[in-house]
């Protein structure tokens, strides 16, 4: 049971000295058998904090004042909304310290498994841009005291924190958000209330092509509402001509899942034309794509280098999305097969192969384990690459990968814990991880991307 401060109840303040950060970048200190959690506080700092809630094992506190500063504290002007929205808990930390934090996060995950302790974890590949790097944003729409709020939900609540000009977003995203907020207020469009499961506008999703400086915008609504969305779309395109595509996604569910099953094009192009390095990519409104173009290009290059394919060899790319890694591998291989469960992404990937004049690719939609079983009957790929979601790969997928017996396996991960778990399982299947390259895909946040290289090493 968690006790929150009641309205009118006197606020309790205490001084704490922060001991460490958790894996989410939250400052922690142990007190009276409970863990106190403070966003924005760094190890070694003495702070004055206000208690917001107290549970059986944890205490949530809001920093009121820093009494001492950690050596790692950044001298840069921080975002004024950081402690409220909690989308970038490391923004107060010096960048070199952020990279060290992420390296240790990967190393700690591997240390859980004795068979993985000898893996070489390289220095984190730092991002050329630590601000303004995000090319996409999924933002909740809310209302408070008559004012439209567009941003992120406050942790464990339905309250939307209006983020204003987010320093992590591409400037075009911030421009779109400002115009949409203004027009929702002007039109008086009903905003969705999750506590009542009532209202219309739920989320605003913006994706930007940094090279072309163009945007695709999707309004996620509780029900189909062409008139309201078309009006918003026309106003948006008039005010921000760089918006070249507008969609409506209909989500009738009452949970916190963003996307519904139906997406309708309202104005402009059906997809966004983007480019990463030499690769041209068309991205649909529902398709997954990396948010940091600089680092995505480096991951593609690294995967291609580590694969070391020749024109006589084949490769398979699992969880291929719109084809970024697969198309890069295809530049060296005889044939590359991409596998993805999302139909729209598979269509995008096939379009992207044609767009880049790569005829040695094919893309299959469906369950990865089943498709791999079928491929095992006719194909012996030299390389398999996987880029799963945060939950990692299902055990049956990893066993199916091992049954193909590729010489090299490239694993791109956004979650060190599931990466370590899967590497341990692959070790049982005869695949030894030689090297992990962490990549700072998300500066100012605790998240870290990793690329692992595994070689087939059968048991003697």
UniProtKB/TrEMBL annotation:
It comes from the Bacteria. Residues 4-65 form the TRAM domain. The keyword Lipid metabolism does not apply. One of its GO terms (biological process) is rRNA base methylation. InterPro entries: MeTrfase_TrmA_AS (IPR030390), MeTrfase_TrmA_CS (IPR030391), NA-bd_OB-fold (IPR012340), SAM-dependent_MTases_sf (IPR029063), TRAM_dom (IPR002792), U5_MeTrfase_fam (IPR010280). The active site is at 414, 414 (nucleophile). The keyword Ligase does not apply. S-adenosyl-L-methionine binds at residues 290, 319, 340, 387. Keywords: Methyltransferase, S-adenosyl-L-methionine, Transferase. One of its GO terms (molecular function) is rRNA (uridine-C5-)-methyltransferase activity. Transmembrane segments: none annotated. CDD domains: AdoMet_MTases (cd02440). Belongs to the class I-like SAM-binding methyltransferase superfamily. RNA M5U methyltransferase family. This is RNA methyltransferase.
């Amino acid at each position: 049971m968690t006790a929150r401060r009641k309205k009118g109840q006197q606020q309790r303040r205490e001084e704490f000295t922060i001991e460490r950060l958790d894996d989410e970048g939250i400052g922690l200190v142990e007190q009276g058998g409970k863990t106190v959690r403070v966003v924005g506080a760094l190890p070694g700092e003495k702070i004055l904090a206000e208690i917001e809630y107290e549970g059986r094992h944890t205490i949530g506190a809001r920093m009121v004042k820093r009494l001492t500063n950690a050596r790692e504290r950044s001298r840069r002007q921080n975002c004024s909304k950081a402690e409220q929205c909690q989308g970038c808990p490391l923004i107060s930390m010096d960048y070199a310290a952020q990279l060290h934090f992420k390296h240790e996060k990967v190393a700690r995950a591997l240390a859980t498994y004795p068979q993985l302790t000898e893996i070489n974890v390289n220095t984190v590949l730092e991002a050329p841009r630590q601000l303004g790097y995000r090319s996409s944003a999924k933002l909740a729409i809310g209302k408070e005291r008559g004012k439209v709020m567009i941003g992120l939900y406050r942790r464990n609540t339905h309250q939307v924190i209006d983020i204003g000009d987010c320093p992590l977003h591409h400037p075009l995203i911030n421009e779109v958000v400002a115009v949409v907020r203004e027009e929702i207020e002007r039109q008086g469009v009903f905003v969705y209330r999750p506590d009542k499961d009532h209202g219309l506008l739920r989320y605003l999703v913006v994706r930007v092509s940094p090279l072309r400086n163009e945007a695709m915008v999707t309004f996620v609504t509780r029900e189909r509402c062409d008139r309201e969305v078309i009006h918003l779309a026309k106003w948006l395109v008039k005010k921000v001509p760089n918006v070249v595509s507008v969609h409506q996604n209909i989500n009738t569910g009452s949970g916190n899942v963003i996307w519904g099953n139906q997406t309708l094009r309202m104005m402009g192009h059906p997809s966004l034309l983007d480019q990463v390095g030499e690769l041209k990519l068309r991205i649909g409104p529902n398709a997954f794509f990396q948010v940091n173009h600089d680092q995505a290009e480096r991951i593609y290059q690294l995967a291609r280098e580590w694969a070391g394919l020749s024109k006589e060899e084949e490769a398979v790319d699992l969880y291929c999305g719109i084809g970024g890694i697969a198309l890069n591998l295809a530049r060296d291989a005889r044939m590359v097969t991409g596998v993805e469960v999302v139909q729209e992404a598979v269509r995008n990937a096939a379009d992207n192969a044609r767009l880049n004049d790569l005829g040695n690719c094919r893309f299959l939609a469906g369950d990865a384990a089943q498709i791999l079983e079928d491929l095992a009957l006719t194909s012996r790929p030299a390389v398999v690459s996987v880029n799963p979601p945060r939950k990692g790969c299902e055990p049956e997928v990893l066993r199916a990968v091992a049954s193909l017996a590729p010489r090299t396996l490239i694993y791109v991960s956004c979650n060190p814990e599931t990466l370590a778990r899967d590497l341990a399982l692959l070790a049982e299947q005869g695949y030894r991880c030689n090297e992990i390259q962490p990549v700072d895909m998300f500066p100012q946040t605790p998240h870290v991307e990793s690329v692992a290289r595994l070689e087939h090493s059968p048991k003697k």
